[in-house]
Design a protein that fits this description.
By secondary structure, the protein is of the alpha/beta class. It has one domain: Class I glutamine amidotransferase (GATase) domain (Rossmann fold). Helices cover about 35% and strands about 15% of the residues. A five-stranded parallel sheet has the order 5-4-1-6-7, with helices on both faces. It has a two-stranded antiparallel sheet with strand order 2-3. A hairpin with a 5-residue loop joins strand 2 and strand 3. The longest helix has 13 residues.
């Protein structure tokens, strides 16, 4: 069994290009799938958020029209209820010692764009974990958190690394559209990441050493499986 840190957004809204507030949070299916599959494989998870706040679930991720069925929504609700105590007692990211964890998993939702992408505590944890070769596994909008990882000279800790992320095309066609305040894929590319994308809504995972990334919600289970395989190795 390994100890895994799950860094989750604490944001409940994202300020859009036009200044409006878009309700957001973590994407239910992504957190549930990763948590469920990792625990089922025998691993222990600690959930951390900025300031130790209770994370907010994105309402859209519990909409049957978005998720696909009422049955799936009911399953997500049930699992979130089963870990409600964990979600209500998160650890502040600033208090995290990354050396205590074998892997760091970062599910998405638009929330990471609002807080994790510029959170210095998250950046500190990711830089230390990367230096130690710890598994780092963000997916969908989770890779936005990588942008917080700056080295002492100000350079991007993940420059030159191959990764995938919710694409600009997916954002335009199935995300927040042209009112998106900034584009995660483009920004990561500008900072020096090597983006490896598949077609929109494809189950796509990229592994580059200790970095395991997934493109979108469709990739959640595959990311969890790759993390489990990497821990077993």
């Amino acid at each position: 069994m390994s100890d895994i840190l799950m860094i989750v957004t604490g944001a409940d809204s994202l300020t859009m290009k036009d200044g409006s507030k878009h309700p957001t949070g973590f994407w239910a299916e992504e957190l549930v799938t990763a948590h469920r599959d990792l625990v089922a494989a025998g691993h222990a998870i600690t959930i951390a958020t900025p300031g130790g706040v209770i994370p907010t679930v994105d309402r859209g991720s519990l909409d049957p029209a978005v998720v696909g069925s009422r049955e799936t929504v009911d399953e997500l609700h049930a699992y979130l209820a089963s870990i409600a105590e964990e979600l209500a007692s998160t650890v502040p990211i600033a208090d995290v010692d990354p050396s205590e964890y074998a892997a760091i998993v970062l599910p998405g939702g638009h929330g990471p764009m609002a807080d994790l992408a510029s959170d210095t505590a998250t950046g500190r944890v990711l830089v230390a974990a990367n230096d130690a070769g710890t598994i780092i596994a963000p997916f969908c909008h989770g890779p936005a958190a990588l942008l917080a990882a700056s080295l002492d000279d100000g350079s991007f800790a993940f420059a030159g690394r191959r990764l995938t992320v919710f694409t600009d095309e997916e954002e335009r066609t199935g995300g927040t559209g042209e009112n998106t305040p900034w584009w995660v894929e483009s920004t990561l590319r500008e900072r020096g990441a090597v983006i490896d994308s598949a077609g929109p809504w494809s189950d796509h995972v990229v592994v580059d050493g200790n970095l395991i990334t997934g493109q979108n919600p469709q990739s959640s289970a595959s990311v969890a499986r790759r993390v489990i395989e990497a821990l077993a190795a």
